[in-house]
Specification:
Helix content: 55-70%
Number of helices: 9
CATH architecture of one domain: Up-down Bundle
CATH topology of one domain: Growth Hormone, Chain: A
CATH superfamily of one domain: MFS general substrate transporter like domains
Structural class: mainly alpha
Shape: globular
Number of strands: 4
Strand content: 5-15%
Order of helices and strands: HHHHHHEEEEHHH
CATH class of one domain: Mainly Alpha
């Protein structure tokens, strides 16, 4: 007897299924069997080796984390090197505090600039320019003996750091999205920042100026002989005076901060090279796709909710950054001077 398609539908659903065999169950009804698709599990390493998209995301993740390490390195180096910078410019702590202030003002300006141009220009080009400027400022700062030049260098250093921060965090958030891999990667991303912030003072400390010491060079004795002769009797007497001279010399060794900052400049420039390659290798179509994915990542929320989120994140970030950089900068100076 011919059967129509209604006879092959699964009980309780509208999907169609072709049975492997027709057999009666205990109730005498025909049993419909469906075959579920089998998903093959593939490890992350297997995807890296055989999937071009996963391989590119992994390489981009490493590059973004490496660039973010530079910001952690800068943060860790800024506090210990601050006293040397004061000595290079021959300025006081009160006047030199403007160096830190100018750097943080530059970070604010750079963050605003980075947010304004990130969606309008190639993101790799933005990072290449910002990271190159950042590495140049590392090399220039130890040689700025003029007060105004040091302030200008710190402003440019801060602007480049602000652009880097906005661009790198945006790239890191868009690589893996809101997936489980994305959450794990963001933890690794900030862990790398913290690790290099810890290593930076260790590398910088051998090149810092030691505290000023008074060194006693010698205890010298000066022998002076005065001869007096009696022309008549031919008798002579010798008068010897031995005054003592204690000399104390205060040594002020020259700064070797340029060595530590040269290491930082070289490290920052090496991290810039992969982004130069990405800029020339990435087609414009992939950049447009990234922008579309980023819009989907933000979501379609009402404008009022977006404004509230923006204000909330802004207040939280302002408090966090103020506490974060105050402790890393001024607390280090206090410990060096008073402990």
């Amino acid at each position: 007897m011919a059967k129509n398609i209604e006879d092959y539908k699964v009980n309780g659903c509208d999907c169609e299924s072709v049975p492997f065999n027709e057999s009666a169950n205990e109730d005498g009804k025909e049993e419909c069997q469906t075959k579920a698709p089998i998903k093959e599990y593939r490890s992350f390493l297997h995807e890296i080796l055989h999937n071009d998209a996963t391989r590119f995301k992994t390489l981009l993740s490493v590059c973004a984390a490496s660039g973010f390490c530079i910001l952690g390195w800068t943060k860790g180096q800024f506090g210990p090197a601050f006293l040397d910078i004061l000595l290079i410019c021959s300025t006081s702590l009160e006047e030199g505090s403007l160096f830190m202030t100018s750097y943080f003002i530059g970070r604010v300006m750079g963050s605003i600039l980075g947010g304004a141009i990130y969606s309008r220009l190639n993101r790799y080009l933005i990072l290449v320019v910002a990271m190159t400027t950042n590495s140049l400022m590392f090399a220039v700062i130890p040689w700025c003996t003029v007060y105004e030049m040091m302030i200008a260098a710190h402003v440019l250093h801060g602007i480049s750091g602000g652009v880097m921060s906005v661009s790198l965090i945006s790239i890191a958030a868009s690589i893996w999205g809101t997936s489980a891999r994305g959450r794990v990667y963001m933890n690794i991303f900030y862990a790398a920042y913290a690790i290099f912030g810890f290593l930076s003072p260790i590398v910088t400390s051998p090149f810092l100026i030691p505290t000023t010491t008074d060194v006693t060079i010698y205890n010298a004795s000066l022998n002076v002989s005065n001869e007096m002769f009696d022309d008549v009797n031919g008798n002579g007497s010798y008068i010897q005076s031995v005054p003592k001279l204690n000399a104390t010399h205060t040594e002020s060794p020259e700064s070797r901060l340029y060595i530590a900052f040269s290491i930082s400049a070289g490290f920052a420039f090496l991290v810039t090279i992969p982004f130069v390659v990405l800029f020339f290798k990435s087609p414009q179509q992939s950049e447009n796709k990234v922008r579309i994915d980023e819009l989907r990542f933000i979501g379609d929320l009402p404008i009022l909710i977006k404004i509230l989120q923006f204000v909330n994140v802004g207040i939280f970030s302002a408090v966090f950054v103020a506490m974060n950089y105050s402790f890393s900068g001024f607390l280090t100076v206090f410990c060096v001077q008073h402990l």
